[in-house]
Amino acid sequence: MRILVVHNHYQDVGGEDMVFHQEVDYLKQSHEVETLTFQNKKGWKGLLQYLSYPYNLWAGQKLKRKIKSFCPDVIHVHNIHYASGPILFRVAQQENIPVAFTLHNYRMVCPSALLFFEERRYMESIGKSFPWNAVKLGVLDHSIPKTFLTAFTYRLHAWLGTWSKVDAFIPLTSWAGRILMEGNLGIRKEQIFIKPNFISPLPFTLEETEKYYIYIGRLSVEKGVKQLFANFDNEAAPHLKVIGDGPLRALAPNRRNIELLGYLNRDKITHYLLKAKAVIIPSICLEGFPLALLEGMSLKKLIIISQEIAASEIIEDGVNGFKINPENFLSTLKEIDQREDLNAIAERGHQVFLDHFTPEKVMNQLNEIYQVIKDRKADQG
Asked: Where is the Glycosyl transferase family domain (predicted)?
């Protein structure tokens, strides 16, 4: 199959870029694959890109040229914010090529993208014909103009019928799929295909487990880092190693029991993961699918995850991991520490990883999605 994978890079590299490159690498093993990318700019060029977001004719022409030269059987789009925009789907429809869209966030239903504002969950945009309250608050970067233009872009294409003609929306969790259905965008159930992220199993070696917990990720508000540090800054708390960086880095120094390691390469991360007692994922936003979850499960590590995260749906509390209230969980950690079946719980978590989140399992799902939408398009003539 000839597959064109399209992605819009943000100004800073993030998890969506990693997923894009990872999937392309695996697709190339069994398909003929080419990519088309866009890059968000700063300054006046970025302003022009943003103003063109609702209907970017230049991006549409760029895709048309790529289609003409490559003749893909399927187009798979990742991010479209903001240098490309929804015109990509209209071009695919005009060329009668089936198109899939991976939803890495909730931007289609709320311009905040994370359903998160002012350090709390923000759900008021869901189901609205237009999210005026979100615009009034400036939920995107505290900017009313940016919030309005982003909301207008997605609502415009609901009114134009663009979303009703996308062949496959691919949310990362069933929870995200339900939110999409409630978004008042004209999307039908048969357009939604749930497919999670994956990672290649990390190299496992038997290491003596130490008593520390580990956090891997960006040091930012939505990740629950304030609450994480507050819970571990306690005489009764265990030791916490923190891998990552971000705007809340300054909160870490001089905290009891907290060791900030900064950004580390993959080998170093694996080294610390192998020795950790548990991986803790404390996000206070409806995060999609944090890779730290899969990294921990792949190495048979105990997973302790915030109940706020959409991906926590794969954790059965006390069976293959633990769910916590991210605001106050020190007492929960103490209760967990008293259990004698923690190794068995971690093993069950590892089995969930093997059953559902290896490259082979997830890429088989993606190949099936491609085949379904290709067959549907052929049946439509």
From this structure: 206-337
Q: How far apart are the first and last CA of the chain?
A: 19
Percent of the chain exceeding pLDDT 70 equals: 99
Kindly list the structural domains of the chain, giving each domain's residue range(s) and its CATH number in brackets, ordered by start.
2-198+359-380 (3.40.50.2000), 213-356 (3.40.50.2000)
Give the separation between CA 307 and CA 151, rounded to whole angstroms: 28
DSSP state of 260: E
Which residues neighbour 12 within 8 Å (Cβ) at sequence distance 6 or greater? Answer: none
Contact call for residues 94 and 68 (beta carbons, < 8 A):
no
Flag whether the pTM goes above 0.90.
yes
Q: How many angstroms separate the CA atoms of 227 and 240, rounded?
A: 13
The phi and psi torsions of 51 (rounded to 5 degrees) equal: -65, -25
* Nearest of 148, 324, 154, 155 to residue 232 by alpha carbon: 324
Question: Residues 214, 216, 217, 219: is their CA dihedral positive or negative?
Answer: positive
For residues 238 and 211, is the Cβ–Cβ distance under 8 A?
yes
SS3 262: strand
Q: What is the pLDDT of residues 259-296, one digit of tens each?
A: 999 989 888 999 999 999 999 999 999 888 888 999 99
Residue 366: closest CA among 13, 14, 11, 25: 25
- What distance in Å separates the CA atoms of residue 260 and residue 186, rounded to the nearest whole number? 46
Decide if 328 contacts 370 (C-beta within 8 A): no
